[in-house]
């Protein structure tokens, strides 16, 4: 048996991003169940995981339903101490848990004015005073965490931890809405945008269903401020260098082109998530570099 995790749209569901990072960033296998937001899909799916009402919701191998991200992180940390979800040092672990709890419960102005949208970046969103206050508080606790733990990495408490996963959707909001933050805070945001697990999530989110109208804004746009993807494009046919999909190992049915070379995949989603950001996928890059 394995873990099950219910998620919403990858481009928009900030809580789902957190829950997924607890698995992917720490090497814990999980079976995903995706439901589109603002439809009947999510409540219908969650009927199988009573009493959950939201995404993400985890089901343990024994069948226990765990519907909150803080609870998911703590349960996985207990079951997989070797994965390193929380820092091993007691002081760093306490600080990581403290800032995670504040993130879980706070920053409502920022969340409301700037909902997560990984498909676009704006030049300005005219943040009101309450959002600016939330940004100032983020800078305060991020600076405090790094100072108190003596972190010499890009992360808050030393190695990447559950605390960083908790703040990943906030980092994306700063990137999406070009929010005014200090240089140190922007360095932290930049580290999130380049994190391998986040790049995979965003690549999937770019092709994971149609745009959601709720998240549309009329602000002027700019290029996404994260790493620039390699210029791949979807193409027709199955005349490719590889005969088996690099992810599933099954026969090729769809193809992309990159640098004049053609590579194959077992379905449109495998191909399209790779087109979105080829370097996010080690299995693809292994055949590309061969």
From TrEMBL:
InterPro entries: Ferritin-like_SF, Glutathione-S-Trfase_C_sf, Glutathione_S-Trfase_N, Thioredoxin-like_sf. It comes from the Bacteria. The keyword Transport does not apply. One of its GO terms (molecular function) is transferase activity. Residues 12-78 form the GST N-terminal domain. Keywords: Transferase. This is Glutathione S-transferase. It comes from Paragemmobacter kunshanensis.
